Amino acid sequence: MKIMVIDDDKNMRRLLRDSLKNEGYEVVEGADGEDGIAKLVDHPDVDLVLLDVRMPKMSGFEAIGEIREITDAPVVFLTALDESYDEIKGLELGADDYITKPFSYEVLTARVRSCLRKNRRFSSEIVKISDLEVDSTNKTAFIQGKNVELTLKEFELLELFIRYKNITLDRNRLLDRIWGYDYEGDPRTVDTHVKTLRAKLGSCSEYIKTIRGTGYRFEETK
């Protein structure tokens, strides 16, 4: 997935870029409102826009109208801690959410995932990889048209693997993303669920590669 970051603060853009890339997202940057819109014209396929409110040349409030003419991707405003008025106005102008600065890595990634999940453009996605078909809306998987009976956790693992195809996901990240940051159970549950998932996928299980000492990576091999 591709995320556009529009912020005049170079350090903030770097922080956002590094955090989002660490989660597997492709990042496009805009140095201010005008630059962001110009970049967006070249990248109308972005999946989400992170838009700072206070910028020179064109503020986030001014930019969102033009952004909506280019893409219907969700827009998340970035606001300062003492600017609650900005949050309200941003939502009234059509923003999907806002993140208050300063924010933690966990808050950023959680808000981004939530916004993407709520947007119907992504929640209705059906992915086909050779004989495997995954329907995120109905949380179902099929191999050669035959339904594969997966538990919710197994489906979430499969969906996450596909979303971050060709990216190695370590066990701790999988545990955090699927079971939550406050999970206190056995971390080996990841390996157990991957094992049962592979068994149910049959010939398609070869897509899930074990990266020794780290975790797993989904690779399309057929």
TrEMBL record:
GO biological process, one term: regulation of DNA-templated transcription
Residue ranges: DNA binding: 124-220
Keyword S-adenosyl-L-methionine: no
Gene3D superfamilies: 3.40.50.2300, 6.10.250.690, Winged helix-like DNA-binding domain superfamily/Winged helix DNA-binding domain (1.10.10.10)
Keyword Phosphoprotein belongs to the record: yes
SUPFAM superfamilies linked: CheY-like
A single MF term (Gene Ontology): phosphorelay response regulator activity
UniProt keyword terms in alphabetical order: DNA-binding, Phosphoprotein, Transcription, Transcription regulation, Two-component regulatory system
Cellular compartments per GO CC: cytosol; protein-DNA complex
Residues annotated as domain Response regulatory: 2-116
Positions of post-translational 4-aspartylphosphate modification: D52
Signal sequence segment: none
UniProt domain OmpR/PhoB-type: residue ranges: 124-220
Function of the protein: May play the central regulatory role in sporulation. It may be an element of the effector pathway responsible for the activation of sporulation genes in response to nutritional stress. Spo0A may act in concert with spo0H (a sigma factor) to control the expression of some genes that are critical to the sporulation process.
Protein name (Swiss-Prot/TrEMBL): Stage 0 sporulation protein A homolog
